[in-house]
């Protein structure tokens, strides 16, 4: 059943959560007064990204006293970006805000986002972190490298340091969800659509409870998805490496032939070893780069969804198989 059949609301707040049993009660406590004070018809769409802790229980409990809370449960962990996409595809609001559950993004800002969007007729309002002192040094350095790389690759990633805390109009949400891309990185996709946008700055707080759900492996995934999503530069790099390799091989070939001709053929173990390892390494790197793109083409060709919904508290949607 489509969102429209279930009636629209003025605002949807999409919250991806994965194993957030500790922080959710605090989050609900802080979010609710903000939304109630807006005096609009709203829904809070929590996407439970296959949590394995008590998150589902905590959410069900919260729903008893907060009818605007809607829970969409994914069957397995699909990842932060896919969870947000699941929320966007189901949101019924004219305006949609995406926010993390760990209170690093202060919910109070939602009121300002809504006001700014209305006053200036904006389709997108980015919340930009002007202060990341509460993030670890490692996180700040890698984030800086990330935005820098994206800029070099020519991606319009919107305001630097804008994460996934943002407001989007219905038109924006529809444009985003219409994209067939499987590995959508929203912070790159949304700015590329070119809707009128504004910026609000905020101070990033510390995580209120629990631990980060973004280990290094997920950060690498996001970086690879981002790069392959915006650029073919790595493929070109592979081509250039191939050129350079071929050139070096040519020089070595001449060297070897000349050596053979004048009878100097015995020494050379070290150089042979180095060339073999270097060429092997570069070849594997290039294969890996190719693999990333081919793999993406392949998964898109299969047409499988990036997440499976187990249950939607609004529609009672059940597993499809
Ligand atoms: N999250 C998710 N699925 C995942 C990983 C994270 O839905 O696979 C949620 C998480 O519960 C949180 C948000 O995404 O609400 C951001 O994650 P986190 O705060 O752990 O990331 P960090 O702030 O450390 O980058
Ligand atoms: Mg966080």
From TrEMBL:
The UniProt transmembrane annotation reads: 237-261, 273-294
Subcellular localization, per the record? Membrane
Bilayer topology annotation: Multi-pass membrane protein
Annotated ranges, domain Glycosyltransferase 2-like: 12-174
Q: What is the first-listed, main subcellular location in coarse terms?
A: membrane
Cellular component per GO?
plasma membrane
Molecular function GO labels:
glycosyltransferase activity
Keyword terms of this UniProt record: Glycosyltransferase, Membrane, Transferase, Transmembrane, Transmembrane helix
* Listed Pfam families: Glycos_transf_2 (PF00535)
Report the family membership. Belongs to the glycosyltransferase 2 family.
Q: What is this protein called?
A: Glucosyl transferase
């Amino acid at each position: 059943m489509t969102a429209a059949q279930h009636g629209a609301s003025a605002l949807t707040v999409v919250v991806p959560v994965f194993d957030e049993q500790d922080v959710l009660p605090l989050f609900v406590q802080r979010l609710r007064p903000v939304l109630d004070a807006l005096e609009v018809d709203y829904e809070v769409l929590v996407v439970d990204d296959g949590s394995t802790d008590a998150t589902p229980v905590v959410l069900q409990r919260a729903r008893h006293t907060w009818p605007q809370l809607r829970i969409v449960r994914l069957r397995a962990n699909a990842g932060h970006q896919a969870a947000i996409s699941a929320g966007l595809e189901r949101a019924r609001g004219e305006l949609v805000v995406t926010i993390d559950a760990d209170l690093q993004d202060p919910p109070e800002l939602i009121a300002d986002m809504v006001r700014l969007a209305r006053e200036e007729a904006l389709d997108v309002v980015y919340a930009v972190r002007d202060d990341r002192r509460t993030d670890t040094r490692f996180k700040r350095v890698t984030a800086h490298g990330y935005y820098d790389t994206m800029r070099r690759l020519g991606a319009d990633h919107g305001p630097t340091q804008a994460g996934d805390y943002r407001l989007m109009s219905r038109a924006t949400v529809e444009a985003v969800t219409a994209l067939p891309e499987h590995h959508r990185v929203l912070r790159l996709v949304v700015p590329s659509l070119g809707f009128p946008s504004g910026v609000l700055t905020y101070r990033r707080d510390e995580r209120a409870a629990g631990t980060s759900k973004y280990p290094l492996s997920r950060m690498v995934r996001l970086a690879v998805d981002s790069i392959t999503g915006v650029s073919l530069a790595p493929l070109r790099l592979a081509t250039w490496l191939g050129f350079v390799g071929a050139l070096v091989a040519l020089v070595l070939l001449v060297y070897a032939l000349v050596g053979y001709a004048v009878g100097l053929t015995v020494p050379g173990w070290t150089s042979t070893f180095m060339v073999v390892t270097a060429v092997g390494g570069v070849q594997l790197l290039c294969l890996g780069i190719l693999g990333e793109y081919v793999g993406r083409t392949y998964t898109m060709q299969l047409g499988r969804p990036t997440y499976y919904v187990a249950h939607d508290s609004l529609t009672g949607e059940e597993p499809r198989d």
